[in-house]
Model the fold of this input.
Amino acid sequence: MSYTEDRATWYNGQGLWPNTPGSDWGNWTWQFRNRITRLEQLEQYMTPTPEERAGILFASQKLALAITPYFFNLIDRDDPDCPIRKQVIPRAGEAQLAAEERLDSLGEDEHSPVPGLVHRYPDRVLFLVTDRCASYCRYCTRSRMVSNAQHYDFHPQHEAALEYIAAHPEVRDVLLSGGDPLLLADNKLDYLLGRLRAIPHVEFIRIGSRIPVFLPQRITPQLCDIFRKHGPIWMSIHVNHPKECTQALKDACERLAFAGVPLGNQSVLLRGINDDPEVMKALVHRLLRMRVRPYYIYQMDLITGGAHFKADVRRGIEIIEALRGHTTGYAVPQYVIDAPGGGGKVPINPDYIERINDQEVIFRNFEGRRFRYPIKSTPLVPDSGEIESGSERPAPEALASAKLAPHREPVLA
Ligand SMILES: *Cc1c(COP(=O)(O)O)cnc(C)c1O
Ligand code: SF4
Done:
């Protein structure tokens, strides 16, 4: 996983499609129509490894193959270990099942009062509005339904979901996801956002989308107008590797930010792709430069055929340790494991606390130096009984001569 970051460069251009007119290249429907979805198409541009070939043939039973030309350009066709390639080109490992894996590893279907609406947390819901994406991530948590390769036959029930939200005043936060909500037509999105805005108890509306990464051309001025109209709409994009941070993505983020959309990023920790502190550091720095605040790093969910992506949880902790204190606080995401079976997201943190009791907390900093923070206050002048009885406060001289405790407790070791 050797990656060298060139901070001065943002990938740009049409790559393997030099003769496509710019008006087509920049048009999201052209990009969508010209996606690479079949082995023969892929072979026009690269030679898949035998492992990839087997994976592509299996994909039609698991999760469809689809890669936009724009995103395909980011693949290193000479490197089977390319971090972009592994995210979107299937490998034979997808057919290998492990005992701990589940189709619905987060128990979403059990927590769905209406198909496509997951109500797991007290005050917010996940609203799955479509099962289609611009490209398909081989490690997708919702592989069971997304792309419909497994015949899940997801039919979003938008009206029933809206009615449920309207009837539940405790729902103050609605997260639109899927599939990718930004594949809906403008008028459909306008309608859904308008309906949600009209529900007085819905305070917070956000969209989870990988469209800016796979299909930045979709972030049109018209779409931005819809976000402006119904704003504030927050958005979580999904970038896993610094190579995905191109000029086109940067421009799309700028259009969103200028339309008043606060941007966060969610990454999935993926073995051999981004489970490396240097790669993650390069990624979070690029994100900040694109006005995107790193939000979550997810441990890989236990989906069927996903084991080849699973990174060691200790790597994830090591990454957070390598970031916290060593770089901008805004650049440090929260690492979480979505508890298998449906326990929700649980923060997984490096352990900075060595000991804590009623008296004190002993902890270490990012450099490993140890500190003590007293929890219990010690009176500046101990009530030794020597001060004149009846006097409530120590004499000013006594205060002045008292040795002040150092503001910062000394390093213990
Ligand atoms: C991730 C998720 C949310 C949102 O969680 P936040 O921590 O608020 O970002 C809500 N509902 C479900 C089911 C989720 O998986
Ligand atoms: S964009 Fe999101 S929903 Fe779509 S395949 Fe990727 S991870 Fe799954």
In short: The mean pLDDT is 94. Residues 109-347 form a domain with the TIM Barrel fold (CATH 3.20.20.70). Residues 118, 120-121, 124, 126, 175, 345 surround pyridoxal-5'-phosphate (ligand 1) (CB under 6 Å). DSSP finds 14 helices and twelve strands in the chain.
